[in-house]
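Ticket closed. Logging final result for Apoptosis inducing factor BLCAP.
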Amino acid sequence: MYCLQWLLPIFLIPKPLNPALWFSHSMFMGFYLLSFLLERKPCTICALVFLAALFLICYSCWGNCFLYHCSDSPLPESARDPGVVGT
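Final structure:
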């Protein structure tokens, strides 16, 4: 499972606080994953473990799913701060 060490840090990259940047962030992460899977060709077990972890994190709306924002979870309090979001 040597190839899994290159996929696990993706879960540690935080989602931006500004909601306007969520689409750009999810597109970047999606293209990064696609290019990684095409270039490095990780073993099947590593790819399945990573995709299962990604599915569980995004399905439960717990944690930092970079694919979309769960509708049930509220925005962070700092997202309403004009100093963070900008004017």
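Residues 14 and 53 are 16 Å apart (CA to CA). No further action required.
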